[in-house]
Amino acid sequence: MLLRLHAALFCFNGITVLQKDSFLQLDQNAKLVDLSAVPIAMPMIAGPATITAAVTFPEHYGKIVTIMAITVAIGINLVLMLNAIQIGKLLTRFNHMNALI
Predict the structure, then answer these.
(1) CA 57, CA 20: separation in Å to the nearest integer?
(2) Which of 23, 52, 57, 79 has the most crowded Cβ, counting Cβ within 10 A?
(3) pTM for the full predicted model
(4) Domain count, the chain
């Protein structure tokens, strides 16, 4: 259900961008300081529970431990993403890819 919602959101945003012929439009009166960006890929990768944990972690464990935990998580995610093709080939070889589709 959530995957369908994300797909619908990406589809709607894509159609909107195609109709406007630009991803971002600025007013002449807009200042660069007033702009903000929402990292939509972060919830897709991490999930709401991870984001909530990252926000509440510093209160319980301190900033250093939080930064280290986030760095390790990002590092593991980076390694997995960089090796996604090899992991996919390995899963296909052992016929485990069907479970993920």
Answers:
(1) 41
(2) 57
(3) 0.48
(4) 1
